[in-house]
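Q: For a teaching session next week I want to show students how multiple molecules come together into a single three-dimensional assembly. I've collected the sequence lines for a complex. Could you give me the predicted structure tokens for the whole thing so I can convert them for display?
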Amino acid sequence: MIDRYSRPDMVNIWSDQTKFRIWYEIEAFACEAQAKIGVIPKATVKSIWSLKDHIFDSEKINLIEKTTKHDVIAFLTYLANFIGDDSRFIHQGMTSSDILDTCFNIQLVRASDILIKDIDELLEALKAKAFEHKETVCVGRSHGIHAEPITFGLKMAQAYAEMDRNKTRLIDAKKEIAVGAISGAVGTYANIEPDVETYVCKALGLESETISTQIIPRDRHAMFFATLGVIGSSIDRIATEIRHLQRTEVLEVEEFFAKGQKGSSAMPHKRNPVLTENLSGLSRLVRMSVIPAMENVSLWHERDISHSSVERNIAPDTTITLDFALNRLTGVIKNLVIYPENMNKNLNKFNGLIHSQRVLLALTQKGVRREDAYEIVQSNAMKVWNEGVDFYNQLKKDPRVVKALNDNELRANFDMSYHLKHVDTIFGKVFS
Amino acid sequence: MIDRYSRPDMVNIWSDQTKFRIWYEIEAFACEAQAKIGVIPKATVKSIWSLKDHIFDSEKINLIEKTTKHDVIAFLTYLANFIGDDSRFIHQGMTSSDILDTCFNIQLVRASDILIKDIDELLEALKAKAFEHKETVCVGRSHGIHAEPITFGLKMAQAYAEMDRNKTRLIDAKKEIAVGAISGAVGTYANIEPDVETYVCKALGLESETISTQIIPRDRHAMFFATLGVIGSSIDRIATEIRHLQRTEVLEVEEFFAKGQKGSSAMPHKRNPVLTENLSGLSRLVRMSVIPAMENVSLWHERDISHSSVERNIAPDTTITLDFALNRLTGVIKNLVIYPENMNKNLNKFNGLIHSQRVLLALTQKGVRREDAYEIVQSNAMKVWNEGVDFYNQLKKDPRVVKALNDNELRANFDMSYHLKHVDTIFGKVFS
Amino acid sequence: MIDRYSRPDMVNIWSDQTKFRIWYEIEAFACEAQAKIGVIPKATVKSIWSLKDHIFDSEKINLIEKTTKHDVIAFLTYLANFIGDDSRFIHQGMTSSDILDTCFNIQLVRASDILIKDIDELLEALKAKAFEHKETVCVGRSHGIHAEPITFGLKMAQAYAEMDRNKTRLIDAKKEIAVGAISGAVGTYANIEPDVETYVCKALGLESETISTQIIPRDRHAMFFATLGVIGSSIDRIATEIRHLQRTEVLEVEEFFAKGQKGSSAMPHKRNPVLTENLSGLSRLVRMSVIPAMENVSLWHERDISHSSVERNIAPDTTITLDFALNRLTGVIKNLVIYPENMNKNLNKFNGLIHSQRVLLALTQKGVRREDAYEIVQSNAMKVWNEGVDFYNQLKKDPRVVKALNDNELRANFDMSYHLKHVDTIFGKVFS
Amino acid sequence: MIDRYSRPDMVNIWSDQTKFRIWYEIEAFACEAQAKIGVIPKATVKSIWSLKDHIFDSEKINLIEKTTKHDVIAFLTYLANFIGDDSRFIHQGMTSSDILDTCFNIQLVRASDILIKDIDELLEALKAKAFEHKETVCVGRSHGIHAEPITFGLKMAQAYAEMDRNKTRLIDAKKEIAVGAISGAVGTYANIEPDVETYVCKALGLESETISTQIIPRDRHAMFFATLGVIGSSIDRIATEIRHLQRTEVLEVEEFFAKGQKGSSAMPHKRNPVLTENLSGLSRLVRMSVIPAMENVSLWHERDISHSSVERNIAPDTTITLDFALNRLTGVIKNLVIYPENMNKNLNKFNGLIHSQRVLLALTQKGVRREDAYEIVQSNAMKVWNEGVDFYNQLKKDPRVVKALNDNELRANFDMSYHLKHVDTIFGKVFS
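A: Of course. Below is the structure for the complete assembly, covering every listed component.
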């Protein structure tokens, strides 16, 4: 975790405090369930819930761990200090992983909830900008080369649709890890009734794991982190779009530049797209957890603990980074400075060249063979490209064009609104 | 693609023949739709469908590409040779990506269908082995160390549940890429009506893309390949389990060893788990496509073509490898040789040590503090471990044990059936 | 391997024909060594070398493997058909891996030699372009934003220096895998004298492995593929640079566009940087082999075979792709069309803004506090940025500037040659 | 960074305190160089060095950054508070990256020095164990299956040789990043003489970058992190070996188990290889930085800042994790408990089967065709495998064996020392 790329709510999910609190709740609900079926005395339930408002002393627990070299045992030892005799009924029949894995998944569920909210806010920002610029014409580019006109609103709508898919994926990913397990040493419920698991999971808003082997299987977490990797990649796409559009030669949009901000220590004229460049970097960080999460799937037999150190790192780091990145991107979109006049200037840079396809189609519709029409348009286009002449005027000089199209027919192909006629249809598909 | 790790049906999906056939169908259905709305003559539809049974000459098309340096134009040129004048109406208003991306997704859909069938067959094999060995007791291991008894059927049931999740994921992943787009040069439908897209997609069993930008957005494909990566990782888990169980010292299962097979050119006594080792390797190959598929998301503006070479490689390679791996794993499971007697021998290797938890619980239930009970059991267990003595006998010599438990109470903890009492419950959860 | 992204010399290295030929040579040299120390009859050496010009029938050998399920045994069986009785001395004391691993490394050495040659050709192309455009001024950009003037030759020189480092790395990587091993079943030389290994390796131009465990340790190969990944990343850097420079709004360079080439099936005006976009994609493919190569390191005990399927894929695919990519990049550089007039136009787009640092320094040298000078220059620069006015004229209107600098002193900061004074020094460092 | 997997010396390298200290030194040496060539007053040098023992107030600097949104400017502002008027000469002609990149590389160099020392300590531990157990016979395993005898010392020697290669690689990797650059806004030395760079780099123990583009090219760092990834993979290999050997059924070695340690909260009998399992996990973390480091290479034009967030994470995290892992592994090796009697027991588990190759060779040397000899040995071996009979006795009953070998000749193949005759030779190669 890097402080400067983190937000407190997500950071809190991964604090020792939160973790011990969740451990405590799992143990307490397990006691409830165990007492209900008569395995442990009802008094124990009261004893353990008496600590309901206890602030766990993380330092003390971590200190105990130095001796026990086992985190859950350290926690239980700490609890025993407060609960006394009844403490012997706590954790009965359970194994550490019942606590650790169920807690870990609760943390991931909470993290997912924040991330879903983040995406919702981003969607809102994208939607606002999409509608605001639904008709703001700019050039569409393939291969970085001018193609045909689109609108800036369409760019935002595309980003919206992609992020909307990501929301669906994230909700699915949350379901993957919204499961708990209280199944004992090797998952056989030998020393603890399946009902305890059912009870505890329900109390904590989780499904019960179908079948666990001491631990909750890690294909779930692999799928979870893979989904975050896809979301990170989408962030990179949007960030890259903005970085391109802010280039000096393009300058169709700019990140908001605060008063007092300095773009460069050496060059006072600079205003750099540093937020979106940062987002490109953060997306690499989000993506890098995917492979280790997948490598974690293949644990040995009923479990080994190699996944643990990986998850201690990637779970906080990746969710914190993604939360920060989504939030940063929302801010970038909201505050984005847009220059429609530059969009228009760029659009016309090549003197009508962007209408080459329409001319091609007009020629074919007049009976020119496609191959011939292509050659006619391409040869004229290359002159525009190379010599900077006007495309329409150039075409008018070509007898092959004149033979097929009269002036009105030719001129009709240079109408910008032609390209925008289905914008509403598309917006309908995206925002319905 | 490596020949020895491929199966013909999946290979065929990625042949030039299949690709050109799909291109042709997309063009033909587009002509139908265009004729229906009066954009092109109805006669063209007849012309193009006259090639319904045409066998495309891939070599000839690829040769034309050497000149045009553009694959779709080469294909259209080839078509024109057969269709003549009407050919000028084919592809009208479309851009190459309309064909390429829609075709690519059809190929991925077909690949998904094969993979889903593969998983179904694997599930069947796992289920059969799970029920066959529902009661075959073996030791559960955490950290590679004996823990408590489970059954071999439970191992198979765990694999089943994991693969069943993978099936659901794959069905979702298929939906991700089961979309087509016919939206023209920059996705604005400027030169082609949205209805054409709707018509063609429906005819081909696809959804229409919500919003495309010349191309279908690559977050869909990133999600698709990420899902294959998870499935590959699950294969690795099952393969690794078998590799462990076949180790000379464990020898609880063995891959089927054919007559005439040679385990080693130098050591005639060897029977190696080479199929599952191979599966571990193949899973690395499946996984390696995930990151490039994610890197492909961030294309520039409305598209660049950097994803293309990546997909030409990872799409065939990954689906072919995964198809092969799933099928190989099914074969391994079906033919797996299982040694229940060795499972039993291993289970008893440490003279009852696997019952340590039960003794611990029995002591605490008799009022011994958990911490004390732990120490009592651990100290006796270590003697068993180090000196090979019998655990039960050892415990009987410990006055602290004797004080808490009479002989019957102690002996009761060494009952194997105790651990199996919930196997049916678990099977109920997995196979219902 | 994708046909369209491969070149024949590299493809040949990975043919069955080449492989069987190398296997044969290893066996033959091993026979020589064995005969020399009297382990096998000298006649066997003659027998085996009698096949010196034999063309191996790959199909037949692969057919035998279907029965033996073991490739080396299949090969030995094939050899036996030609050599008869003496064949029993061939492969004596060796294990399959002695052949497989030594052969694999010979193939990698040969692949390295091609790649080193590729880099040499690329270096030559870069050097030529660097010197040709040593003084061709263009704007340097940080964050995609105009910074200060550089030359196009410096860009090429940077690429040269980076590729030169890659050459050194590749030579080191080649050394990593230029080792062979003939050490028997578990690497103890129990059945074969260490001298045989020494002899064979020397004959084949390899070092002997320090210590092998049936196989040559895979940390060597991990390092090899990691190095290829770095080279691929450098290719991506250069390709991305060209893609940026070819953007419609920038258009400082263009990939060569052949007669008859079509940029787009729909838009005849397009000239797209498709070669460099393709290189960006290929670099992802090269990079994707790095992680599986590293996962291959951790084989079980003295070996398992999980690395094999991985290497069957990544070794040919990665070397073939990298060879193709280096060669394609060399072609792109050689044929690159450069537009110095556009470079100049872009450089002046913001009316002198790129000289902001010099003005800043001039002010501080006249005693203005750095913080104040920064504010003065930035506020004027922002006006240029936003209103398109001339930077020099703008500064002249600012009394704070006028107070510190007279007109000559101010004007001096707008001299382009100032920025180029150390180009020769840099070229000296790069090309010496 | 995860506290529990970190050591203070490495952590300190990445503290703000260390960073600001290095920034200060770079600025101070740059002032020295600038004064020497007369660009700034000599008094400034005295001024800046007056802060030689200053403790930088990180919090205050970070606070200033909140306003400037630029870290280096914040630092310079902080410095100005102490230095006053002379501060205007500090940083003159430099760009932030001159400071940031040079500092970053100094931190990586220091990190490398710690890692090299770590490897040295690991090498020492491996060497000690190798010599201690040079003759401790154990079974060599391929595919997890018994192959032929080796010694435990050979396993340690293999690990030594691999780590020794890693040391060489790390020394090379250190050289890759042991460069500094003071070349100004776009690397042209327009506002700062190349001599300043030379002077500062020399003072700080670095080479000067051949050619920089505001920043030091990231292919260097890609190579650095790739090398760490290889080292991590080697750690995984050694850790995996120990995990295998500690399995209950094998139990040839055990991690040291401290007094008071608890293997499992539920099962008091457990002693788990948790340190080496942890190392397998840590190696995944080390490896995961490789791809983002490679993705960082392709920055836009003369630089973008997307690499920065990546490096802020992976540079501390990866070096800290690797330092911890190497140190943990050294501890594991030093304290490893070795059970030669179990090695011997395992070796004899299959009644002499491990000698199958020798019998095969003995038969072929007596003139039996290799194919026939193989069949003879294999068929007898399978009986041993399946029925648990003694291999030697089994062979004696086979008339085909008896015909070729008399009892002495047969028995000679079961001599263990035969396999160890070249151990000294191998040790000579590894440790010379």
